Amino acid sequence: MAIVDHMNQALRRVPAWPIYVASLGYAAWMLWLGIQNRLGADPVKVLEHEMGQMALYLLVAGLAVTPLRKLAGVNLLKFRRALGLACFFFVVCHLLVWAVLDVQRIDRVWADIVKRPYITVGMAAFVLLIPLAVTSNNLSVRKMGAAGWARLHQLVYPAAILGGVHYVMLVKGWQIRPLVFLAVIAGLIAWRFLMTRKKAASRVRTAS
Amino acid sequence: MAYRWKNTLRDKDVTDEAAFLNRRQLMAGAAAGMGLAGIGAAQARAQGLEPTSYEDITTYNNYYEFGTGKGDPVDHAHMLTTEPWSVTIDGLVDRPGDYAFEDIMAKMTVEERIYRFRCVEAWSMVVPWNGFELADLLEMAGVQSNARFVAFETALRPDEMPGVKYPVLDWPYVEGLRLDEATHPLTLMATGIYGKEIPNQNGAPLRLVVPWKYGFKSIKSIVRITLTEAEPPTSWNKANAREYGFYSNVNPQVDHPRWSQASERVIGSGLFARRQDTLMFNGYGDDVAGLYEGMDLTKFF
């Protein structure tokens, strides 16, 4: 337990802003590499996939904050907003690279959103994340009240599942990586539901 | 039988990459001089047919036996032993048997073919292949009159192919053509690229190239060719019949269920390049459209 306490103490002194700086810096660096023609034979796909992948990593990181605190006692709560907003930032980058550099035409972008299930799914995830990004500030928490704000932010669960499904659907054949991502996301969400059920059950038990 | 098809893509006297690059610079200079608005459709098309660089052709590959990443084949394919190599030719042939690679090469006429290469994933390259016509190889084995299809099989070597640990596809990789497609003058067995021996990641020591079909039809590192009466199973069709048909002719009007096939990203053209319209039969319609006369290509996709 002592190690965890030391860790939490040290973490309290670490600011969250480097997450924003690193995210912006990384996206800018990747774009720069692309402009310099240093992203290999198919720079558009590399950039597109890199942005999407970063969004998934940050999504998983954000979802892992609560289980880490409850199971291991490591408190990363102060970083969660930055993780979530950085995730949203990469989702937007991913979307922009796809629409502007890959598909290139607005009519085709729309046709893809309507016609291609994996893009429909990805877009749905993006749309679900918009209200979360917009309300990721103290003012919104105060205005909405902690409970209401928390309820709204449960939208991250369907968004995360859709994001994982989007990845599984877009690859050819059954590939391991996207399935691992989806399993981890599903696992992190399932854990929460199991915890709430357990809590509810124990409440019923103490009441009776 | 060799030299039955003349290249309209480029003069076929150019083999080394330096010459290609040189011309690319010349063209870029000309385009810059004319200004962007001055580039006509014909010239834009000519630019699209500029052969892709050797580096891009040999580092950006789909060869799932070595991993599903585009860079996996170049990282792992060196493990593949290509010497000795033999191809089993069997089924409905007069002279079935195991044909050593050197014995095949001794009898075949290798020529250069600069072909467009269109992947089902909506990207494309232009590849200067070296190879011989499949028709010549089939003639060597003697095709029997009741044969109607040709089946192909890629080597399956778990010790040398790290990707086959995963059931991405039902290994070994298999492909097939109708006999008239297989004996078409465009259909090539490639053994080289840019005048060099074909690298392992591109399907050494010999692979099929069917330029009017999506890339996955052009099966790599072939160990078996079987003449059959019935349509043979093909790997991607087995994996997902809704998405990948037996024919898989390049067709901008028939979309892949998950993405449009109307246009393609040209490999090597950079981050801000325009997509290029995909051509019917990948631009080889004059040569091959007759093979599919009367067929509903939305049904036989």
Verbal overview:
The complex is a heterodimer of chains A (208) and B (301). Chain A is mainly alpha-helical. Helix content of chain A is 83%, strand content 0%. Chain A contains ten helices and no strands. Chain B has 301 residues and is of the alpha+beta class. Helix content of chain B is 22%, strand content 21%. Chain B contains nine helices and twelve strands. In chain B, the strands form two sheets. In chain B, strands 3, 4, 7, 8, 9, 11 and 12 form a seven-stranded mixed sheet that branches. The longest helix of chain B has 18 residues, at 17-34. Chain B is globular and about 50 Å long. The two termini of chain B are 30 Å apart. Mean pLDDT of chain B is 89; it is low at 11-15 and 21-47. Classes of the chains: A mainly alpha (208), B alpha+beta (301). Chains A and B meet through helix 3, helix 4 and helix 5 of A and helix 3 of B.
Question: In terms of topology, how is this protein built?
Answer:
The complex is a heterodimer of chains A (208) and B (301).
Chain A: H1 2-12, H2 17-35, H3 43-72, H4 80-103, H5 106-115, H6 117-134, H7 138-144, H8 146-152, H9 156-170, H10 176-207
Helix pairs in contact in A: 2-3, 2-4, 3-4, 3-10, 4-6, 5-6, 6-9, 7-8, 9-10
Chain B: H1 17-34, H2 41-48, H3 54-59, H4 72-76, E1 86-91, E2 97-100, H5 101-107, E3 111-118, E4 123-133, H6 134-141, E5 149-154, E6 174-178, H7 179-182, E7 188-193, E8 196-197, E9 207-209, E10 222-228, H8 235-239, E11 263-266, E12 276-277, H9 285-288
Parallel strand pairs in B: 1-10, 4-11
Antiparallel strand pairs in B: 1-2, 3-4, 4-7, 5-6, 5-10, 7-8, 7-9, 11-12
